[in-house]
Amino acid sequence: MKKAILILGVALSILACNKNEGKSESLKTAYIDTAEILEKYEKFKAEDEKFKVKSQEMGRPLEAKVKAFQAEAQNFQQNAQVKGPQWAQQKGAELTQREQQLGMEQNALLQQLQQEGGVLRDSIIKEVKVFIKEYGKKKGYDYVYGTGDAATILYAKDAYNITDEVLKELNDNYKASDKKEEKTAVKK
């Protein structure tokens, strides 16, 4: 009796192992190179270009102030000997204060640009994640992994790489939505 139970137990465990193997083979998995997606996604490139233009526009007033300061500092060096040490000391203190003020303005501008850039990048990444989730569901994937900057895969066969497919569909969707926006802007 004990042998029969033991044989039955071994047979059940073998069957259970075979069922698990069958299930793991039927899983459909793929991976995406997330760094490549961000590098080649046309919407990200377009938004990045717009952000660079905005950054330059925001920086122009500060650049003008810096150039004026540099001209004034150069003028100070030329006039320091002519106007005497008391004038030089007073004017030097004023220039030092303005230099510190310009540095604070520059730091504030950089911080604002970093914050706005981060928000823009995060919104695009969130959009891409939602797209990949929907893409995975539509194509019947059980798992879609990510590689790139924050690698979660150390090795995978190239056959499982769907980066190009996802990138093509992302860019096609972006182009289609961009054309719709242009048409509505023309109608208005």
From TrEMBL:
* SMART domains in the cross-refs: OmpH
For the keyword Lyase, the answer is: no
Q: Identify this protein by name.
A: OmpH family outer membrane protein
Which residues are the signal sequence here? none
The record's comment on protein family reads:
Belongs to the Skp family.
Presence of keyword Disulfide bond: no
Keywords in alphabetical order, please: Signal
